[in-house]
Amino acid sequence: MASRLCFNIGFLIVASVGLLHGAYAANTYTVGGDLGWIVPPNSSYYEEWTSQSTFQIGDSFVFNWTTGTHTATEVSTKEEYDNCTKMGIILKDAGVKVTFNANGTHYFLCSEGTHCEQGQKMIIKIGDGIPPSFAAPSLTAAAALSALFFSTLAIFFLN
Q1: Which of 35, 84, 99, 108 is deepest in the core (most CB within 10 A)?
Q2: Residue 144 · residue 150 · CB < 8 Å
Q3: Which residues form the signal peptide (predicted)?
Q4: How many Å is the Cα radius of gyration of the chain?
Q5: Within a domain: residue 4?
Q6: Any alpha helices (H) in the chain, and if so which ranges?
Q7: Which of 80, 138, 135 is closest to 111 using CA atoms?
Q8: pLDDT tens digit string along 51-90?
Q9: Burial of 128 per CB tally in 10 Å (0-12, 13-18, 19+)
Q10: Is the CB of residue 152 less than 8 Å from the CB of residue 12?
Q11: What Å distances lie between residue 103 and 98, 106, 116, 126, 159, CA to CA?
Q12: Nearest-CA neighbor of 115 among 69, 63, 67?
């Protein structure tokens, strides 16, 4: 009987680790890849860079540039982005890391000189790009883990 209990507990632990390992792991991206955050070679460079990945809640973005040459400015609207409006949250230190904790669309540009007009701007869509109207509970890993736990208990007590 004790060996059966040890087996069930061991199974539960191994299965739990497997479920949690399959959960989404946040990624860290270097903005612009190897190029970094500079005036790009063409105006669509950052749009092409962001289209290569699907970004999720918890992902982080590192803006690398030579200090004093660029900024990463987050503006609020698409209109401000399109017009290269240079007012918003201005990040002046190179290597700054920005992490997003909710779905939504975020607009970044460089507020130095005419860098934005030359294409140093990008849109980051987290999830579907639409901010949540309410926080819906996540049932995936928690529900699966709960079902596994109760199934193991049922098997233990029925045997």
Answers
A1: 108
A2: no
A3: 1-25
A4: 23
A5: no
A6: 2-21, 45-51, 78-82, 140-158
A7: 80
A8: 999 999 999 999 999 988 999 999 999 999 999 998 888 9
A9: exposed
A10: yes
A11: 14, 10, 25, 5, 46
A12: 69
Residues 6+ apart with CB under 8 A from 12: 148, 149, 152
Query: Is residue 119 one of the residues assigned to a domain?
Result: yes
The answer to the question of residue 10 being in a domain is no
* 85 contacts 126 by C-beta, under 8 angstroms: no
Max distance between CA atoms of the chain, in angstroms, equals: 75
- Per-residue pLDDT of 31-45, as tens digits, reads 999 999 999 999 999
Q: Which two tokens stand for residue 26?
A: 């946040």
Tokens representing residue 45 in the block: 């460079």
Residues 6+ apart with CB under 8 A from 153: none
- 91 within domain boundaries: yes
Residue 52 maps to which CATH number? 2.60.40.420
**Are 91 and 63 in contact, with CB atoms under 8 Å apart?**
yes
| Residues sharing a CB contact under 8 Å with residue 115, sequence separation 6 or more, in sequence order | 39, 70, 109
Residue 39: domain span: 25-132
